[in-house]
Amino acid sequence: MTKQVTEILEKRLSGQKLTEREAVTLIRASDISPFDEKIISAASQLERPRKNEVFVLPPLYISSSCVNACTYCNFHGKGKSLSLNEFEDEFRWLVDSGHRSIELVFGQDPKMFVPETNFDGKDQRYDVTKVAEYFQKAKQILDQNGGGMLTVNAPAVDELSYNKLKNAGLDVMLLWQETFNPMRYKKLHPGNTPKSFQDYRLNVYDRARNAGMEHIAGTFLKGLYDWRVEEQMLCHLDRDLYERQGRGFSMIGTPRIKNFEKYHVSDEDYILNIALDLLIYSGPLWLQTRESWELNSKIYDQFGGGFIQTIDTSTAPGGYAKLGKGKAQFPVHPYQRNVIEKSLMQKGINTVYSWNVQDLSSIQRV
After folding, report:
1. Where are the beta strands (DSSP E) in 139-214?
2. Average pLDDT over residues 80-95
3. What is the pLDDT of residues 15-74, one digit of tens each?
4. Global pTM?
5. Rg of the chain's alpha carbons, rounded to an integer?
């Protein structure tokens, strides 16, 4: 197996894309020392576009009201939803702070994602007229300030709804699969809620692509199940999208939930998973403030730049312009922008706050 792993790593370092079989071989080898060290070393040597830059992407939470019942999330039942005017205050705060690429985050708020009268969990259809108003306002503000990029992290919807949001200003559709394991998924998403229908969620990327979305982002939530098994499934999904539609994921998330039941992912395994992601996927990785700066700093020391990074962060509606915060979805580490910028600069990496879909396309690899 040593020769096989070495050949696969040499192929990737030569600039060639790995097949799914080769990627799965690396994932399985990562559980055998010293292959994990070889994998991390290869990822450290891998050339990536714009490796001396980090692209900053903050989340803006619009609604924490959610009808789903995910056992690992703080959003349940009634929550806070920003009015369009409150949203504008939040969005302008981020724009005035220099951000031009912003993620809009929604819970499954039935007043925003209005289900059809004859709702079918296996074929969910929504009226997203109100959601589109937030994108229209955001795009208007961005256009007034030189343009930018809008990403959505929201419930899975139908093809027509994605098309409406795209026409309203959406650039990147992002959706985390949480876990691919059907039994775990059912346990973690109890009841008969929209999110409890896993097949509908798994097929979301096809609906977004069919609606004309050029860029989609995906991952799993590390810590809900065996991360190596999840990584194999994510790779299969990426390669399947590539084979059928000519493009896989434009962005790979790296969220980790800690100390949740028996599938805890250690810092060492987290960094190993980052290394595998760098070798397997074409799109850049998105590092977040779920992790301490100490850990993210180690990742930059090991692999260089070319990542997307969250710095300014609130995971509650109203968390930026001090409107009266709602409940946070999950805790984050406080990052001081000037401290992070200085740390990155010392590593030879510049922070980029003003970027758009053209920049996202420029950091895609083979």
Report:
1. 149-153, 172-176
2. 95
3. 999 999 999 999 999 999 889 999 999 999 999 999 999 999 999 999 989 999 898 888
4. 0.95
5. 20
CA 61 to chain centre: 14
Rounded to the nearest 10°, the torsion over CA 323, 76, 174, 223 is: 120
Coil, strand or helix at 57: coil
Q: Scan for tokens 């070393």, then name that residue.
A: 41
- For 187, the 3-state DSSP assignment is helix
Q: Smallest Cα–Cα separation from 101: which of 220, 215, 204? A: 215
Yes or no: say if 270 and 231 are a contact pair by the CB < 8 Å rule. Answer: no
According to DSSP H, which parts of the chain are helical? 2-13, 20-29, 35-45, 84-96, 129-144, 159-168, 182-188, 198-202, 204-210, 227-245, 267-280, 293-303, 337-346, 357-362
324 token code pair: 């009266």
Give the distance from CA 193 to its chain's centroid. 23
List the structure tokens of 277.
Answer: 């992601």
User: Which long-range contacts link 4-10 to residues 24+ away (Cβ below 8 Å)?
Assistant: 5/29, 5/35, 5/38, 5/39, 6/38, 9/38, 9/39, 9/42, 9/279
Q: Looking at residue 66, what DSSP letter applies?
A: B
pLDDT in tens, 170-204: 999 999 999 999 999 999 999 999 999 999 999 99
